[in-house]
């Protein structure tokens, strides 16, 4: 009788899952962190070579060295402008997210209300910011930031509503039946089962809305209203042919968007761990 040889599967490593490259070799955490850094250095180096070679005009593509020089010279104005744009984006993100969560909770209580809100949310999702910004800036006056904050709120409302509404539908029927057998009230079911299940989805929506709020606040600053935000300084610098300075303000806007994204990503991971 022939004894079959069994192939033993090696145990999987515990803890954080390691990524496997195309060659089958497991990439370490240092390699995964180093890869984007190397790519960034290569891109910036290539950019600098192109800008200094004369093949590309400076007004089309300023060199990274010129942009860094502008950042060093104008960093105080970048901080003050970033504070203005960041405040508008933060107000819009908080207000829009809260309204989206409340609207999703209301829609979850009735199919009729859900059907009424669905076309409204779909319409809000396709509103062009470029067309709405001048209207709101004119409506609330040239010295008010309210129009920009409303635009950021509209941008944040849609992802917060959609993800929260989806999370509210993830409750298992067996859990609802169990609470019903205990004679639980609808509020108790909502508080103990439905809301905890929807929390990670809500924070995912807030993470998605954070970038949209920053972008909307920046775009709204191009079309009237008080000057001083990053969007206004970008347009002013470009109009005066100070292209390296305009790119420096673009870098500040990117840093602001990344800050919003990283904070909301940390909140999302915290909520997922507590689930």
Descriptive notes:
- The protein has one domain (68-273): MetI-like fold, CATH 1.10.3720.
- The protein contains nine helices and two strands, in the order ββααααααααα.
- The chain has helices at residues 29-53, 64-108, 111-125, 129-140, 146-168, 173-181, 186-220, 230-239, 243-273; strands at residues 19-20, 26-27.
- A two-stranded antiparallel ribbon has the order 1-2.
- Residues 1-17 have low confidence and may be disordered.
How many runs of DSSP E, i.e. beta strands?
2
Major beta sheet, specifics?
A: 2 strands, antiparallel
| CATH architecture term | Orthogonal Bundle
CATH fold-level assignment: MetI-like fold
Radius of gyration: 25 Å
Class of secondary structure makeup: mainly alpha
Strand order across the largest sheet: 1-2
Order of helices and strands: EEHHHHHHHHH
Distance between the termini: 54 Å
Chain-averaged pLDDT: 81
Overall structural domain count: 1
pLDDT under 50 segments (min length 5)?
1-17
Form type: globular
- The H-level CATH homologous superfamily, spelled out, is MetI-like
In which range does the helix fraction lie? over 70%
- What top-tier CATH class fits best? Mainly Alpha
Blueprint (SSEs and pairs):
Elements: E1 19-20, E2 26-27, H1 29-53, H2 64-108, H3 111-125, H4 129-140, H5 146-168, H6 173-181, H7 186-220, H8 230-239, H9 243-273
Antiparallel strand pairs: 1-2
Helix pairs in contact: 2-3, 2-5, 2-7, 2-9, 3-5, 4-5, 5-7, 7-9, 8-9
């Amino acid at each position: 009788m022939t004894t079959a040889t069994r192939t033993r599967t090696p145990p999987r490593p515990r803890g954080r899952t390691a990524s496997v490259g195309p060659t089958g070799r497991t990439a370490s955490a240092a390699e995964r962190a180093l890869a984007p850094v190397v790519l960034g250095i290569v891109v910036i180096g290539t950019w600098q070579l192109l800008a200094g070679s004369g093949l590309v005009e400076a007004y089309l593509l300023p060199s990274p060295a010129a942009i860094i020089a502008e950042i060093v010279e104008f960093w105080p104005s970048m901080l003050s402008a970033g504070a203005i744009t960041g405040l508008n984006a933060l107000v819009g993100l908080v207000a829009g997210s809260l309204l989206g969560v409340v609207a999703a909770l209301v829609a979850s209580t009735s199919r009729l209300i859900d059907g009424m809100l669905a076309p409204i949310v779909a319409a809000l999702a396709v509103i062009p910011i470029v067309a709405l910004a001048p209207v709101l800036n004119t409506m609330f006056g040239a010295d008010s930031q309210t129009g920009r904050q409303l635009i950021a709120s509209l941008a944040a409302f849609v992802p917060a509503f959609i993800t929260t509404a989806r999370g509210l539908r993830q409750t298992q029927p067996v859990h609802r039946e169990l609470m019903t057998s205990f004679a639980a009230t609808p509020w108790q079911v909502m508080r103990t089962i439905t809301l905890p299940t929807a929390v990670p989805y809500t924070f995912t929506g807030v993470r998605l809305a954070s970038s949209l709020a920053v972008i909307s606040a920046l775009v709204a600053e191009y079309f009237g209203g008080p000057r001083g935000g990053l969007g206004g300084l970008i347009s002013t610098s470009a109009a005066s042919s100070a292209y390296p300075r305009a790119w420096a303000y673009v870098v500040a806007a990117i840093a602001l968007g990344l800050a919003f994204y990283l904070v909301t990503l940390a909140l999302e991971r915290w909520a997922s761990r507590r689930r």
